[in-house]
Sequence to fold (330 residues):
Amino acid sequence: MTLTPGDRTPSQAGQVQFGAEPAWPGPRDITLTRGPLDSGHDEAGWSGTDPLSETTLAELRELAARYPEARSALLPMLHLVQSSEGYVTAAGLQACADILGITAAEVAGVATFYSMYKRRPIGEYHVGVCTNTLCAIMGGDAIFERLKSHLDVGNDETTSDGKVTLEHIECNAACDYAPVVMVNWEFFDDQTPQSATDLVDELRSGREVTATRGARLCTWRDAERVLAGFPDDRADEGPAGGPATLVGLRLARENSWTAPRSQNREDTTEQATAGDGPARSGTDAMRAVKQSHTQRAESETVVDVDTSAGDDGPPSSDDNTSDGKGDPTR
Fold:
């Protein structure tokens, strides 16, 4: 008996077997057959049966060839399908399966596990509002409610003009600038319900918008192509950080705070091999790398601040900010 997803209880779903683990082949030329896709949906309800272009198929094979085991390319391949088709279509899912020599069910399992892969068309701009704890209490929930009302959409829905898809998302590791909104995975910091409303209005009007920390916005499909592994050579465009990120370091230096020593691997190794030159040198090297990373972050932040410092000269790292917040208009 073949069970559809709707027929399975949780216990039954956990018992479904897909057979023995196959030996993963390398990428190969394929001839796609329409089969069950002719109806407009495949057997599992995936939509989008138009075949992928030869250009997209060639790029999918190129991605598969980049990895020692072709199956490792599945995540970027799904991003490429979204770049080409606007979402993970049934035909795109089947193409990935055929190129990698795995089942469509295995590809679907990955595509449905990660929320960045979509089963219906996404707008030109994906607007994600962080509603995780810190952003939420700083105003993220209010921003999300305002945008739902202003755009007349619900969560993970697209405006009637196809411009904006709104989604509440989890932590974007930007808590120092909470509440944060992301557009096509670029940061917009220190948002308010009004500034977020103005932002989506600008997106829908077609005006050029630049992220707070990052590049000029591209379309969602263009961003998906970058995630697939085809860079647009704009990785260094725009500021990459800001003063708020280094507030903790500044306060620690002002107050001569240091981290307590713990019996981690580094400390234990140093104590156990006291006087042993190679081991001590390795520990020193680790510390040097950490210090280098810190200095680089400070240097990049100072350069970033200098762009708006005018003729007064560059500020020191200790007076980058007085309140711990970056300039949200930058």
About this structure: The first helix runs from residue 10 to 13. The longest strand covers residues 125-130. Strands lie at 125-130, 157-158, 164-169, 181-183, 186-188. The CA atoms of residues 155 and 167 lie 5 Å apart.
